[in-house]
Write a structure and sequence with these properties.
Distance between the termini: 100 Å
Number of strands: 14
Number of helices: 16
Order of helices and strands: HEEHHEEEHHHEEHHEHHEEHHEHHEEHEH
Oligomer: single chain
Shape: elongated
Helix content: 40-55%
Length: 452
């Protein structure tokens, strides 16, 4: 066949690819037999007839699998992917061509490239995968519980791949920690929930390079990955992982997590890669937004100076207590920091801020930080839940005794244990009443510090 005339009749960038089959029946070398002018212009000066495809663009496992399907399985393949190293998105079609050589197949490659993603094109990658992705995205958008909806997506990955376990892990670069965000497993006991430490997972990005996907299908792939990253492969083998497909989750250029499936049916590698690569694109945005909202929600409930909970967080805590009819009781301590106005007026507000920070640290010696609230100014509150009355009163007494002789931090305090016989408003009023009595006694003993 006159392949050159064949591609010259196409106005879009187009070429004919030859695909070799290895002795094991897998994809071997892929070369560009010939190309039209638009394709040659796109490829630049490195192009020549017979050039290996990965001399022109980065090597891509999914693309190679698609070429093999077109050349040897007589399948029409359509895909839409991002090539990060070239900062472009590519919409391509692979059309099967006839071949007289059982070990070399041919396919026509037609592509269109663009700088920005066109979400409308993603729905047409393939009928079956498009349906799965659309259903998954609808479940994400309509779910009341975002984490649960992500688990449904991971379950869909197992349906597509016949895999054992799918998982999303996230990286916290500030705390240098990792966490399992969500997972779904067919195993009775589930996958080993231990995950590699932060330092090891940070090496994954280098192993993936600019690719949106990494496939490890067999021992050969495992050995190739081992040359790049021996500790990672050791962790895979120790966990009993025989194969995997992994895709990074990115926020702009930064990788903040990974989505992967392990021990899947390798005969379904093409559709699995397609599903994971596209879903990681959608999930990157959704999870990133969810994390941002969680962070903003946490920040909105934190006192900027002391790092303790603020008034808004305390109101939410009271709301939760009122909604929980099963609580066994809780303790309230109303606190007012003595001497703050004197420090602000005579030493300065910077010194007053230091005193407030020390006051917060002092309280954390006796109660959990999650139970301590700064209401503003010199007012603090402790709402102690999840402990017996005896323990609460013992800690309150120990805190009071530590203030005796403390030249830096001294609170007026009012302690009240609520056993459920009064409402929260009454409980706080009783704690406040005791605190004001203690405050009055303090200033009677220290009239020089009395607020004016």
């Amino acid at each position: 066949m006159d392949y050159q005339s064949f591609v010259d009749g196409i106005t879009m960038p187009c070429c004919v690819l030859s695909v070799e089959k290895t002795e094991k029946g897998t994809c071997g070398t892929i070369q560009v037999v010939c190309a039209n002018e638009p394709y040659k212009i796109n490829s630049g000066l490195d192009y020549y007839d017979g050039v290996a495809y990965d001399s022109l663009v980065p090597q891509n496992d999914l693309f190679e699998e698609h070429c093999f399907e077109a050349a040897f399985r007589n399948k029409l393949v359509h895909n839409y992917v991002e090539i990060r190293s070239l900062h472009t998105w590519v919409d391509y079609v692979l059309v099967p061509l006839t071949s007289n050589n059982k070990d070399v197949g041919y396919c026509q490659f037609i592509l269109e490239s663009m700088e920005k993603a066109d979400i409308r094109r993603m729905g047409s990658v393939s009928t079956n995968i498009a349906e799965e992705i659309i259903i998954s995205c609808i479940s994400l958008m309509g779910a009341e519980n975002f984490h649960d909806s992500v688990k449904f997506v991971l379950a869909d990955i197992l349906d597509v791949s016949d895999g054992e376990t799918s998982r999303i892990i996230l990286l916290d670069d500030e705390k240098k920690k990792t966490e399992i965000f969500a997972e779904f497993s067919r195993l009775q006991k589930g996958m080993d929930r231990s995950i590699p430490d932060y330092a090891l997972i940070k090496t994954w990005e280098k192993s993936l390079g600019e690719s949106n996907l990494l496939r490890v299908l067999n021992d050969r792939d495992m050995r190739m990955l081992e040359k790049k990253n021996p500790p990672w492969v050791k962790s895979l083998r120790d966990a009993g992982i025989k194969n995997m497909i992994i895709s990074p989750l990115r926020r702009q250029e930064s990788v903040f997590g990974y989505m992967y499936v392990v021990n899947f049916n390798v005969t379904k590698v093409a559709q699995t890669c397609e599903y994971i690569e596209l879903m990681s694109f959608f999930l990157s945005s959704e999870i990133s937004n969810n994390m941002l909202m969680d962070k903003l929600n946490r920040i909105s409930k934190i006192d900027a100076l002391t790092g303790l909970n603020n008034r808004r967080a305390m109101i939410q805590k009271i709301t939760d207590i009122n909604a929980d009819m099963k609580h066994s009781g809780y303790g309230i301590i109303s606190l007012d920091l003595n001497g703050l106005k004197y420090v602000n007026d005579n030493i300065g507000h910077d010194a007053g801020d230091v005193l407030l920070i020390k006051a917060g640290e002092f309280l954390k010696q006796f109660f959990r930080a999650s139970d301590i609230y700064r209401m503003g100014g010199d007012e603090f509150v402790v709402i102690a839940t999840g402990m017996e009355r005896a323990m609460f009163e013992e800690r309150a007494n120990r805190m009071h005794n530590h203030m005796i002789g403390n030249t830096e931090v001294n609170f007026a305090i009012g302690v009240f244990w609520c056993d459920g016989t009064v409402d929260t408003n009454s409980a706080f009023r009783q704690a406040d009443t005791k605190m004001y009595e203690d405050k009055r006694a303090y200033y009677e003993a220290h009239p020089e510090l009395k607020r004016k």
